[in-house]
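FW: tagging you since you asked about this chain on Friday. Here's the raw sequence from the shared folder, copied in full. Didn't touch anything.
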Amino acid sequence: MKIRSDILSRATAPHGAGYGGSSPVRTPAQARQLVRHALAALGPLHPSQVEDLLLVTSELVTNSLRHGGGVTGFGIRVGPDRVTVSVADASGVPPVPQPREELRPGGYGWPIVLRLCREVSVDTRPGGKTIHATVTIDR
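HL: got it, structure written out here
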């Protein structure tokens, strides 16, 4: 995914995303904190857009921990009308929507990400993948 960035904070720059490096993100809460920090530099945003971005961030990191062997990279890019969160993990298997079964828990995260995002892309590589999820913002 190619997105030009107006702001790319050093604290939230991609750390190993797509390169197999170690990530400073170990939990969804840590990822949300980095996103909040990046958004603070933008000034006031519509609360629903912030909540959408935080939910997408949580879902991507949670899915990486549950299904992808853990977070190997995390990045945030801010553009004039969008914010892109990138999460890399150790699995080269792209996510696929799972059919819902009444008694089976889970399976909501990926559909939520697809519903809330303007764009979603998956870059696979030997030893892993990076998911880029873009949420529209109004400034």
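FW: The longest strand covers residues 128-136.
HL: agreed, and Residues 12 and 34 are 6 Å apart (CA to CA).
FW: great, closing this out.
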